[in-house]
Amino acid sequence: MLHLNCVSGCKSSMTTCFRALCCKGPPPARPEYDLVCIGLTGSGKTSLLSKLCSESPENVGSTTGFSIKAVPFQNAILNVKELGGANNIRKYWSRYYQGSQGVIFVLDSASSEDDLETARNELHSALQHPQLCTLPFLILANHQDKPAARSVQEIKKYFELEPLARGKRWILQPCSLDDMDVLKDSFSQLISLLEEKDHEAMRM
């Protein structure tokens, strides 16, 4: 009887092991989010996205129209549509907003006063655009490694983010190509906001 119980127990254990090994199936697919990335020419949009995709940012030219990159993270894939930032292209940005689930706005924190003013106006327009105003925003104050870079607090005050973006989902983060940990953490925070918006939509 003892021997039979042992055999029975072994068979049961083998069945459990077999199911664990062979019936586990592939891991669940990572969610994908469609994002639009905007900012003036020279803000560093293309270089940042290339670095996140483990591509060399060297010899990267300015985007003249738009480009799309699938940026992989451990818990999500971000399909980022990057729009060129030249003056003759910015007026067409809104044509590419449809279908976006989040916004990445990159600014050059070391730029001239004129360019910073233009960036502020463009960000204000995006935050108030009907197709973007309810979406999560990641605002990256790039080129923090440059001597003339403004701090995040200076950017927040100059861009009037507290009154303008009150009630919206937004993150303002400093970044540079030299600190990928900070950049990846910024995108992790954005993914959390995207997931929160997804969960809210499911509860409605």
Automatic annotation (TrEMBL):
PROSITE patterns: ARF (PS51417). Mg(2+) binds at T46, T63. Keywords: GTP-binding, Magnesium, Metal-binding, Nucleotide-binding. It comes from the Eukaryota. SMART domains: ARF, SAR. Pfam families: Arf. Gene3D superfamilies: P-loop containing nucleotide triphosphate hydrolases. One of its GO terms (molecular function) is GTP binding. GTP binds at G39, L40, T41, G42, S43, G44, K45, T46, G85, N142, H143, Q144, D145. InterPro entries: ARL15 (IPR042292), P-loop_NTPase (IPR027417), Small_GTPase_ARF/SAR (IPR006689). Belongs to the small GTPase superfamily. Arf family. This is ADP-ribosylation factor-like protein 15. The gene is Arl15.
